[in-house]
Amino acid sequence: EWQERFGHEGTGVLERLRAVAEGSGSITGADVRRVADELGWPVAAVAGAASFYADLTAPQGLRHVRVCRGTSCFVSSYGRNVAQVEAALGLRCGMRDPEGIVSLDGAYCLGHCYASPAALNGSTPMTGRRLGERLRSDTEAEVLAQPIPFRAASRQPVTLAGLSGDAGEWQVWPETVSSGDPTSVLAEVAAAGLRGRGGAEYPVAAKWRAVARGPAPRYVVVNGDEGDPGSYCDRLLMEADPHRVLEGLALACFAAGAHRGFVFVRSEYPIAVDRMRVAVAEARSAGHFGPNVHGTGFDLEIDVVQGAGSYVAGEETALLHALQGLRGAVRPRPPYPTSLGFEGHPTAVNNVETIATVPWVVRHGGIEYARMGTPEETGTKLVSLSERFARPAVYEVEFGTPLRDIVEVLGGGLRDDRELRAVQVGGPLGGFLAPDELDLPLLADALADAGVALGHGSLVAIDRSVSAPELLRHLWSFAAAESCGACTPCRVGSRRGLELAYRLAYTDTAETEHQHLLEVMGTGSLCAFGRGVAGSVRSLLRVFSHDFGSGVL
Ligand code: SF4
Question: Interhelix angle for 242-256 vs 182-192, to 10°?
Fold first, then answer.
């Protein structure tokens, strides 16, 4: 039905539109009609995509700069990082200079939260102080080339992130595919108790079984659209060990009865896009996929598709739209992608960390994996600590580890003896915890009871330099910028929230409206974005209650 309607697989559409935007500086109506004509697509479908994604709507100069609007960068510069870059370049975000040389846009977020503030100068990451000056002079002398710091902190040497000798490459795939028995992979993943690490916590084996039960063709998509400001563990995995991700994807395809897999990588991670593409070429030439993999008769194709700049395209239905070259808007579930996914076929969508865990589980056994963590939530989680910590890094910890240990022992508290005001857990859809609430264990259910979502496991430290009303505006600005617009409570509510945040900073007259808005968004939004933002704002108001005008809250 999909192909009858569109006559063409859409995975190359965003790339094609990006080439137009980068080549001509912007996409015109004539460009849209020409691309639609070439594809045999309705003009509205191409126009929908061309008008949705940041990379396609922002004017592009010969040098396109993206400044990070993420929370760690906001905190690291007292909320002034974007304005400083704008002043240095003489451009506002969303503008290009009259000569078409330089253009500037903002992005949530670039995944350099351990070294904030950050920007992308073309596809070159830059971080640290005097960012605006360095961007103005186009100096790359302090280009961020160091790898993301990673430290394993679990009892056992899990080496999930693959930065130690145990990582290996393609150690289990040849033997597993040669066995011809996909049920063994399903059995190990089920025994591991592995749940999705992207925030939804859905049992992985159950998802793959649901896809395997559906009619062919089936697909597996790795969600490399990690966009939670504060989280950079998926970037670490894709850049440091892309073959682990690919081996996990191959195992997932085998288990789910899929012969085609995709890795969808956000455009804010250009190095990860490159490394994944190189790894795909290497793995294909090593015979790990392609036709008749390792002489088994099992055919498998894997492709990397680059996103085009949208936070909400990380939601699985929006991601599938983006993968098919459409607007990255959310659609109601059910039907779930396991029955109605890529091009209408059964599809498993798993995030990078989840997929990267699979080779270890298959190699060492699900029971061994389930020994770690807690009975309710087995195994380990990568947590990303922000720049305000004394030792910002990705840490691999067992589920159940007290947040206080992560913050004080692993992270070493705050740098420069700063005083901790709050920790934002799980990004803008997660929530805030006060310092006296950090004895909670790293468990999704325990955090949910405290009104916080674990999300991708980011921890952004908020120190006393940050004004709570500005933090509230920051949160609502994110919501207003990234809402996909598919449902009214979030599309309208996120902009209304931003207006009310300005009023809340100075007056208590907005309190009732604000509370009502949170109620409507929290209950009436179509997806976790609108509901999560409402919960996160509530937790901010609770933790920072003394920072707003008296009587406001
Ligand atoms: Fe889109 Fe927001 Fe509605 Fe989710 S809650 S579907 S992001 S408008």
Answer: 110
Q: Smallest Cα–Cα separation from 250: which of 263, 261, 238, 242?
A: 261
Give the nearest ligand 1 atom to 484 CA.
Answer: 1
Check whether the bond before 109 is cis (ω within 30° of 0): yes
Q: In terms of residue numbers, what domain contains 349?
A: 156-161+169-370
Q: What is the pLDDT of residues 402-443, one digit of tens each?
A: 999 999 999 999 999 999 999 999 999 999 999 999 999 999
- List, as one string, the DSSP characters of 38-97: HHT--HHHHHHHHTT-HHHHS---SEEEEEE-SHHHHHHTTT-HHHHHHHHHT--TTEE-
User: How far from each other are the two terminal CA atoms of the chain, in whole angstroms?
Assistant: 52
More confident residue, 546 or 541: 541
φ/ψ (deg, to 5) at 546: -80, -10
Q: Are residues 199 and 319 in the same domain?
A: yes
Among the candidates 313, 348, 370, a domain finishes at: 370
- ipTM attached to this prediction: 0.99
CA distance 142 to 125: 10
Q: Is 529 in the pocket of ligand 1 (CB under 6 A)?
A: yes
Query: Would you call 110 exposed, middle or buried from its count of C-beta atoms within 10 A (0-12, 13-18, 19+)?
Result: buried
**Is 94 a domain residue?**
yes
Mutate to test the pocket of ligand 1, among 310, 317, 327, 526 (most ligand atoms within 8 A of CB): 526
Q: Are 395 and 406 a contacting pair, CB within 8 Å? A: yes
Would you say 496 and 122 are in contact if contact means Cβ atoms under 8 Å apart? no
> Domain containing 319 — which CATH number?
3.40.50.11540
d(CA 24, CA 60): 8
pLDDT per position as a tens digit, 92-130: 999 999 999 999 999 999 999 999 999 999 999 998 888
Distances from the Cα of 452 to the Cαs of 31, 299, 427, 521, in angstroms? 44, 43, 10, 16
Q: For ligand 1, say whether the CB of 429 is within 6 Å of any of its atoms.
A: no
CA-482 nearest atom, ligand 1:
7
- Which 8-state DSSP code applies to residue 390? S
Per the document, the length of the chain is 553
Using the CB atoms, write b or e for 389-408: b if 16+ within 10 Å.
bbebbbbbbbbbbebbbbbb
The answer, yes or no, to whether any atom of ligand 1 lies below 6 A from the CB of 466, is no
Whether residue 78 sits in one domain with residue 125: yes
Residue 521 placed within a domain: yes
Helix (H) or strand (E) holding 412: none
Question: Which whole-number Å values give the CA distances from 21 to 11, 15, 93, 399, 406, in the listed order?
Answer: 17, 10, 17, 44, 43
Q: Which tokens is 347 given?
A: 């599809």
The domain that contains 390 carries what CATH number?
3.10.20.600
- In the 8-state DSSP scheme, what is residue 70? S
Higher confidence at residue 506 or residue 273? Answer: 273
- Closest by CA position to 189, among listed 171, 176, 175: 176
